[in-house]
Amino acid sequence: MKGPFTMGETNKTIAEHVQDFLIYLRVERGSSSHSIKSFYNSLRVFEKYISREMGVISIKDITLTVLRKYLLYLEDERENSPTTRAHKISTLRSFFTYLVSESYIDQNPALKLSKPKCSKTLPVYLTPEECGRFLQVVDNNLPNALRDITIIKLFLFTGIRAGELISLKVMDVDLTRREIKVIGKGSKERILPLNTVITEQLTRYLEERPKVKTGALFLNYIHGGYRGINQEEVNILFRKYANIAGIKNKQVTPHKLRHTFASLLHQNDVNIVDLQQLLGHSNIVTTQMYTHTNVERLKRAVEKLPFKEARTKYNLKK
């Protein structure tokens, strides 16, 4: 399959370079399938833009100016948000760094790109009442109801990532020790504790889970056989139950339940270091966004100001 790029004496197309890069991510970097798909989708947009605007060129002809024009295209024509553009810049930097390491180019033109300023929005999460509604709509009479409610509770009671959940094996669950082993970003292993609610839920699910050869914890029956559930199937079940629950002002996703897990724990005085370990954040700065959601805690904090006499002194009425 021909693409818009050729590479000097190698005559490699951009598609071939991208495929080589994706293999590198999987084999040498240990990237998850979710991350690899994200890289591919982002680079595919870049490839199509170059093909449309410049035709067949050498990868060495991709300059900083070319990349800046591409960013304008993302902003003006595709109307990408600052966050999306920043993500695409990160993808380009990684891709061109790989090409430098493989001696296809001498310098990385994406390193000088400035990322757009992204507004820092507070994480949106479900209230305890909304969580209750979301859990209650799973009809026990529906096919896969036990599987679905177990998946939802696992997100809500452990803060697990979607990619981590779909990769879970039965052998990763230790009900005796009340913990599960997950492989997070960068192939980092961590242990998640299980509270009483999710331990009981997993116990029941494992008792009724089909006895099949595949070791995947959560199964789907497709074309006459069982296989592990995938990301899109998880997204579909979330959309279905969120619609039934009538939660329309918040897009209920697996990641939204991760936000909910973290936000509600912090509101109940779980410290930031413990929260970092539970979420698997390599940098505590990432975890600190949840400190801004604890408004009630902040209200209690400002009540501790030593100005109680101010009401009388300045004749303030109750």
UniProtKB/TrEMBL annotation:
Query: Which keywords fit this entry according to its UniProt record?
Result: Cell cycle, Cell division, Chromosome partition, Cytoplasm, DNA integration, DNA recombination, DNA-binding
Q: Which InterPro entries match?
A: CB, DNA_brk_join_enz, Integrase-like_cat_sf, Integrase_catalytic, Integrase_recombinase_N, Integrase_SAM-like_N, Tyrosine_recombinase_XerCD
Residues of the Core-binding (CB) domain: 12-100
Domain of life, source organism: Bacteria
Chief location of this protein within or outside the cell: cytoplasm
Protein's UniProt keywords contain Cell division: yes
GO cellular component terms listed in the entry, alphabetical order: cytoplasm
UniProt keyword Nucleotide-binding present: no
| UniProt-annotated location(s) | Cytoplasm
Residue ranges of domain Tyr recombinase in the record: 121-303
Molecular-function GO term, any one: DNA binding
Query: For this chain's UniProt record, which GO biological process terms are given?
Result: cell division; chromosome segregation; DNA integration; DNA recombination
**A Pfam family hit:** Phage_integrase
**Protein task:** Site-specific tyrosine recombinase, which acts by catalyzing the cutting and rejoining of the recombining DNA molecules.
Q: Which PANTHER family match?
A: PHAGE INTEGRASE-RELATED (PTHR30349), TYROSINE RECOMBINASE XERC (PTHR30349:SF77)
Instruction: Tell me the protein family, please.
Output: Belongs to the 'phage' integrase family.
Could you tell me what this protein is called? Tyrosine-type recombinase/integrase
Recorded source organism is Desulforamulus aquiferis
